[in-house]
């Protein structure tokens, strides 16, 4: 009976529905901000369940909007919910929710990309990195336009144990476009394997929980939405500074349909490209004719080890960027194509349409 009374104390009192809140405050989803409202509380409850037990938890919710997901977090038993909302129009509705749950909701009007979450919670909730995760969760129905830069920022925080990860291995439960969710969790050799796959999986256990159809949102987006859960690993699978690892992965995936040596080449200045590419691949014991999507995380670890070893002997390599060299190269010399490091059928250097593939900047 006591347990039932305690559980009921977590439940919110009767409130206007999310649809009524939207009408009451004349709220509209802004297309330029990639806003889409999720009105079905059964779905918001399902998202929250992916985070695990929230009884007495501290939660940071990213972009609460009209507060549907916030209600589910509160009903799950969280006692301290910090909501970070950039859009001024939603603040009044969130204050109404705060008044319905006295002392349990704190509202920050600001940008999650710049907000110092490490200052938002007491140090007493911290847990040792090699212990259990702290009773702190990050949950959010992320706008599409901020989801990828935000997860990259948090992955770097995980590597450096800063920001929300100063408290320990803080878990995240977030929404992404379905395609991005699939890339985050893609396995070796799959079509969705990408830079984002490696960056997420070398630092975290990543689980694609379920897909929400686009028709569940208002307004309906053109794509479905995936819910992804992240738990930081006690030990990263690649033991090097984040920026070095990111640089190796980014360059390898520049030509994702070509053999991996083509991307590795771009880690080095043209004058020493042939020699250093060959040395790095030999030291890493990685087959140069594997494509980036076919490389495992242990193979990326070997590549990072080999690159770090070369940089230790030649520190200037760390600061070298192929695109900067290309930009500064005189136009008259841009047409001089260097010889390939490895001899192969020229047809395999082209994509299926027979066109030379261009390097990509996409994190996907």
TrEMBL record:
Pfam families per UniProt: RrnaAD (PF00398)
Major subcellular location class: mitochondrion
Keyword Aminoacyl-tRNA synthetase included in the entry's annotation: no
Family: Belongs to the class I-like SAM-binding methyltransferase superfamily. rRNA adenine N(6)-methyltransferase family. KsgA subfamily.
PANTHER family per the UniProt record, alphabetical: DIMETHYLADENOSINE TRANSFERASE (PTHR11727), DIMETHYLADENOSINE TRANSFERASE 1, MITOCHONDRIAL (PTHR11727:SF17)
Lineage, opening ranks: Eukaryota, Metazoa, Chordata, Craniata, Vertebrata
Name of the featured protein: rRNA adenine N(6)-methyltransferase
PROSITE patterns linked to this entry: SAM_RNA_A_N6_MT
Transmembrane intervals: none
Domain Ribosomal RNA adenine methylase transferase N-terminal: 43-234
GO biological process: transcription initiation at mitochondrial promoter
Keyword set, alphabetical order: DNA-binding, Methyltransferase, Mitochondrion, RNA-binding, rRNA processing, S-adenosyl-L-methionine, Transcription, Transcription regulation, Transferase, Transit peptide
Sites where the protein binds S-adenosyl-L-methionine: 36, 38, 63, 85, 111, 141
Gene Ontology CC terms, in alphabetical order: mitochondrial matrix
Subcellular location as annotated: Mitochondrion
Ranges for region Disordered: 337-364
Compositionally biased spans, kind Basic and acidic residues: 337-358
GO molecular function: DNA binding; mitochondrial transcription factor activity; RNA binding; rRNA (adenine-N6,N6-)-dimethyltransferase activity; S-adenosyl-L-methionine binding
EC numbers on record: 2.1.1.-
């Amino acid at each position: 009976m006591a347990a039932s009374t305690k559980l009921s104390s977590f439940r919110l009192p009767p409130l206007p529905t999310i649809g009524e809140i939207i009408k009451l405050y004349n709220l509209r989803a802004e297309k330029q901000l990639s806003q889409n409202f999720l009105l079905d509380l059964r779905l918001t409850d399902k998202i929250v369940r992916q985070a695990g037990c929230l009884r007495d938890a501290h939660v940071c919710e990213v972009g609460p909007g009209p507060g549907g997901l916030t209600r589910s977090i509160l009903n799950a038993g969280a006692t301290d919910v910090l909501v970070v909302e950039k859009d001024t129009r939603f603040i009044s509705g969130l204050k109404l929710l705060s008044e319905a749950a006295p002392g349990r909701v704190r509202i920050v009007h600001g940008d999650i990309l710049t907000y110092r979450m490490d200052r938002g919670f007491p140090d007493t909730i911290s847990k040792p990195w090699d212990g259990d995760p702290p009773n702190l969760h990050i949950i959010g129905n992320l706008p599409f336009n901020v989801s990828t830069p935000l997860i990259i920022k948090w992955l770097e925080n995980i590597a450096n144990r800063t920001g929300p990860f100063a408290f320990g291995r803080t878990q995240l439960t977030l929404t992404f476009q379905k395609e991005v969710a699939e890339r985050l969790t893609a396995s070796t050799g799959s079509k969705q394997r990408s830079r984002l796959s490696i960056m997420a999986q070398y630092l975290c256990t990543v689980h694609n929980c379920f897909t929400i159809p686009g028709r569940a949102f208002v307004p309906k987006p053109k794509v479905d939405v995936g819910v992804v859960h992240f738990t930081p690993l006690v030990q990263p699978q690649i033991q090097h500074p984040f920026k070095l690892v990111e640089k190796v992965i980014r360059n390898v995936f520049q030509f994702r349909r070509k053999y991996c040596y083509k991307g590795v080449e771009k880690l080095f200045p043209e004058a020493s490209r042939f020699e250093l590419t060959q040395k790095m691949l030999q030291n890493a014991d990685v087959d140069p004719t594997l494509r980036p999507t076919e490389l495992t995380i242990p193979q990326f670890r070997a590549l990072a080890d080999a690159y770090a070893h070369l940089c230790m002997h030649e520190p200037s390599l760390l600061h070298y960027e192929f695109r900067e060299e290309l930009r500064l190269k005189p136009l008259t010399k841009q047409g001089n194509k260097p010889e390939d490091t490895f001899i192969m059928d020229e047809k395999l250097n082209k994509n299926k349409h027979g066109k030379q593939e261009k390097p990509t900047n996409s994190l996907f």
